[in-house]
């Protein structure tokens, strides 16, 4: 099999380029691509438990603990102990975390636009539809 025939190779290569571009933009905000899915998820739905957030972001629970620690030190999230489970915490954005949303979404959109610009609008829609179909 050749590289241009391997889905794994092509997706990995594209992902590397997209993550590098996004990482450069996020560094301006003292963030990196590991923190992006956590913030992106919380902007859509706050109050998730760490376990729920781990599932949404597709990372191990112990990894999520480290990511949340980083975001808490930066002042972007708070943890609130759940009333019915003293070991579980709900995660909420601080005002500073909420304030990042507009700027960081714009940064991500610029990365998307850069990589999608090689495709026609119809191809862009088709690619997004196919990726959504493959990512249930």
Domain module tally = 1
**Strand line-up in the sheet with most strands:** 1-3-2
Helix/strand/pairing category:
mainly alpha
| Anisotropy-based shape | globular
Order of H and E elements: HHEHHEEHH
Whole-Å distance between the termini?
A: 27 Å
Specify the CATH class: Mainly Alpha
Number of DSSP E strands: 3
Report the CATH superfamily.
Winged helix-like DNA-binding domain superfamily/Winged helix DNA-binding domain
CATH topology: Arc Repressor Mutant, subunit A
Q: Count the helices. How many?
A: 6
Q: Unreliable stretches, pLDDT < 50, 5 or more residues?
A: none
The CATH architecture comes to Orthogonal Bundle
* Binned strand content: 5-15%
State the helical fraction.
Answer: 55-70%
Q: What is the CA-based Rg, rounded?
A: 17 Å
Question: Mean of the pLDDT scores?
Answer: 93
User: Sheet bearing the most strands, described?
Assistant: 3 strands, antiparallel
Short summary of the structure?
This protein has about 140 residues and is mainly alpha-helical. The protein has helices at about 5-25, 35-45, 50-55, 60-75, 95-115, 120-135; strands at about 50, 75-80, 90-95.
Key terms:
136 residues, globular, Arc Repressor Mutant, subunit A, mainly alpha, 6 helices
Could you please describe the fold and organization of this structure?
The protein has a three-stranded antiparallel β-sheet. The chain has one domain (3-134): Orthogonal Bundle (Arc Repressor Mutant, subunit A), CATH 1.10.10.10. The mean pLDDT is 93. It is 64% helix and 9% strand. It is mainly alpha-helical.
